[in-house]
Design brief:
alpha/beta
């Protein structure tokens, strides 16, 4: 279904996996061909957007590292999808790193994500801080690190991405 304000926009996608444990195991990784086998969530995003993926980053749970990767990614991509670091653990810093940078937060994304999560996992869905926002006319999605959560998030993203981009770029 094409929405009234949706345009056929061209876009590239950057994937950022936020995981201190994976970072300790593999070190810093950059490039879509470098997604580790054990990064199931990153691989799901790659599978969903295949030819649209322009870059991949593996970073630790660090506000500075997350922000640096996002700023670098947004130089090449119109869409940045982060996975990991969105939980309630004190070490989970993805939301803290990015929320203040959002020019506009897309609250509906997190609301729909939690609603759909509730259907699958019940009240544990309240633990999710999944969110999205606009930075410099580009869209940033923050998803939990689990493969199942990423698959759910991708379903929502794929259904609404062109519409969101049309608005973010002032085309709608």
């Amino acid at each position: 279904m094409v929405l009234v304000h949706e345009r056929d926009v061209q876009y590239g996608v950057a994937i950022i996996t936020v995981s201190s444990s994976r970072f300790e195991k593999h070190g810093p990784l950059k490039g879509k061909e470098r997604i580790p086998e054990d990064d199931e969530s990153g691989r799901e995003i790659l599978k969903a957007f295949s030819e649209k993926v322009v870059d991949y980053y593996l970073v630790p749970d660090s506000v500075m590292e997350i922000r640096s990767a996002v700023f670098d990614a947004l130089r090449k991509a119109d869409v940045c999808i982060l996975t990991g670091g969105t939980g309630l653990n004190p070490k989970d810093l993805t939301i803290e790193a990015l929320k203040d940078l959002f020019e506009k937060e897309i609250e509906g994304f997190g609301e729909i994500f939690r609603m759909q999560s509730f259907k699958e996992i019940g009240y544990s869905a309240i633990l999710s801080r999944a969110t999205a926002g606009i930075i410099n006319g580009k869209v940033v999605f923050c998803l939990p690190g689990s493969k199942r959560a990423v698959i759910l998030g991708l379903e929502i993203i794929k259904a609404s991405l062109k519409h969101i981009l049309s608005h973010a770029k002032g085309l709608a």
